[in-house]
Design goal:
This protein is α+β, with helices and mostly antiparallel strands. The protein has one domain: Glutamine Phosphoribosylpyrophosphate, subunit 1, domain 1. It is globular, with a radius of gyration of 22 Å.
Amino acid sequence: MKPVQVSLSASSEGGAVSAPHALAAEAGAIILRSGGNAIEAGIAVASTLSVVYPHMNGLGGDAFWLISDGDAHTVRGLAAAGPAGRYYSAALFRDRGLREIPFRGGLSAMTVPGAVAGWGAAFGFSRDQWQGHKSWSGLLESAYCHAATGFPLSPNQSHTLTRFGDTLCHQPGFAAQYTPTGKHLLPGQLWTQRALAQTLGIIAENGAEAFYRGRLAWQMAKGLKAAGSLLTEADLHSFMPHWVEPLRTTFGAGEAINMPPPTQGVASLMILALLHRVGLHSTDHLGAELIHNTVEITKLAFKYRDRMVADPDFSDLDIAALLTPDFLDHCAKGIHRHSAMRPPPIGLAKGDTVWFGVVDGHGRMVSVIQSLYHEFGTGVVAGNTGVLWNNRGCAFSLEPGHINMLEPGKRPFHTLNPALYAEEGRVQLAYGSMGGDGQPQTQAALMMRAKHYGLSLAECVSSPRWLYGRTWGEASAGLRLEQRYSRTIFEDLQRLGHQVSWVPGYSDFMGHAGIVAGDSEGGFAGAADPRSDGGVAVP
């Protein structure tokens, strides 16, 4: 069989896979080549990414899926994100004298990971609705093999490990798994994860439910308890992913589709809808007007996001009201075209995540995001299972009365939000990015460049980007530009009142984006981010 080739952009008549790691894109394309559908290929990509990109996602993290059979009216959302354990509450931390939830360590391992349950739910949907015929174990084979026999360490993982390894090596199980020789691994060095391979073998043999029930669940709960976590086997046993109705808004000649709360999908849709209303006079996608308008709209969208987005099981706020034409028209009147409004309070622009997309030869698509939240999550490996736990729980608030105040059984606010775009009733694009607060902004850049400026998929993803947000040590948010923008644009934005600074030309700070697309003539294509270690693979 001809080997699968991975490049930054590619097209075919049999589908396409875009992923931030080349081995994951390859795994998905192999499934498509052998007759698998977009969901089946997506499970292969998702599980492989959990092994080969462990600083950004893993079995101990969460996932959100948008699933389309090509018809815009039948898109399904799958929220595979777990809640806080039954023994966690805001009072627990306040009683210990803490004013915020710690980012690392056992106590921060407070939410049930949903990713594996999401794979299982998607697999069942594929089998029941799309007549999927691939075996469950076959879809996890790539992930298992890369964990058991090793793979060359990617530059991004090596860089991230060098940056955070010395801090995280004190967390239970971290050093043994990620620096087994006592030194940081270099790009290209072969690295194995035998404990994780054993865990994947159990899941491959017994199904996704084996992660949440039985001996594996007992081992993980035991390891977490030893690390100081209050999560229990009962918390794992009771978890189920949610099938949800996506949110939608008009954009250009079609509609953008995204996830409902507890994700920030509504903010991504608000930004696109308001850009559509405000309009642009410049024909230059690298000009200051697009950046300024998007940043001002982002400030407004984040204001409503931070007030209203939370676990809908604990909130009765009407999120759909933010996407009504009358409300959006009202918001558009508040956008200042010629000056920057004062930066509102905003959290850290964090979030190491993976987005991937798959389109198969029938035009069926998945748009998926998986995450541990911060780099390497809590840093805690759950006992001898090789499962690195997420720290998504630190997105909770300890403030009494806050909409995202930590409560038992509550899901935290999620930055994760995969996206689709449809025209004339057919889904055309799956797109997304990693990057916390940067995700809605990057989605806006991708869609404006694709549908307003008419750029190629590769140009949409690789072109210079901006990000408005706050990072470590900063009291207020600022605007970053990649240094491939001109000095004139930098100065234009300063004159408009923005606090602007440079980042390198292809910066991780801007996230790893991607797109896959299908057209009415039966062609399929994709683009991946040169800022990542990934690419596009076609069958």
